[in-house]
Amino acid sequence: MTTVLRLLVGCLLVLAPTAGALAQDYPTKPIKLIVPFPPGGPNDIIARAVGQRMQEIAGVPVTIDNRGGAAGVIGTDAVAKAEPDGYTIAITSAGALAISVSLAEKVPYDSTKDLAAVTLVATVPEMLVAATSVPANNLAELIALAKAKPGQINFASTGPGSMPHLAGEMLRMSAKIDIVHVPYRGAAPVMNDLLGQQVQIVFLDLPILLPQVQAGKIKPIVMGAKQRVASLKDVPTTAEAGFPEILPENWYGMVAPAKTPPAVIAKLNRIAVEAMQSPEVREKLASQGATLVGNSPSEFAAYIKSEIEKWGSVVKAAGIKPGN
Questions:
Q1: How far is CA 315 from each of CA 38, 173, 245, rounded to the nearest angstrom?
Q2: Which comes out higher in pLDDT, residue 10 or 47?
Q3: What is the value of pTM for the model shown?
Q4: What total number of domains does the chain contain?
């Protein structure tokens, strides 16, 4: 072995444990937690509750950075392009990680290659509700009404390709009914027109709907979840209503840049899962209709792939094109 080669080998041996040592010490400085939506929505509420507890566990500040735009794609892309050291992460949505693959003409990242899965944080059911003027109180009655009045029932959404849009398409295809999609820009205008009887039905995240349902201002029809929600025990699931294939659960997961060291990902996972197991965090988010998960990085990575396939098949079957 030449002198130069010996020096190179020696340098490699000295540097080899560096990544492991850094992971062992992680975290030593503030962690930026990107939320790719504006403050106040379900994604933001979940991230702030979990991030606050993570800060207490990790012993370093966990700062929320709201970067809304393009249905979560802009903020998620910022993480994909960040330094892979575990100090820039995100809690982002099903739309940004799975649905956008089939609906956006060009997504600037690959969810399965440019991002490292940390953990599935929470699932939030989509609930189907109706305006009070709609003469239907359950899914069977709503389907019968739609069949009696083809093309006369409008279903709203928060935008083309959004979870509420795809949920409505799942209902349309599964029940074989002719209902008309009316896209909006966000949940607020949807709620305004639903309360004003301008549209008849909509699927939305449970936290958005819960206050209006409890006030009797809109009718709960069915819950797009695997099990009933404690805050609305009388509302049946889609499976109980005879349509188990209609399962439009929204979800939010933690990701980091793809080349983040596995040991750092593992530590991030431990911190996040411990935060999610906190009774205070669970109680706060349960009141919002969210179910905390906290699985392993490999389990979450597999889940993202399965969700890409699931929503891709819905987009294809419904004939939805990017931007419409």
A1: 26, 11, 15
A2: 47
A3: 0.83
A4: 2
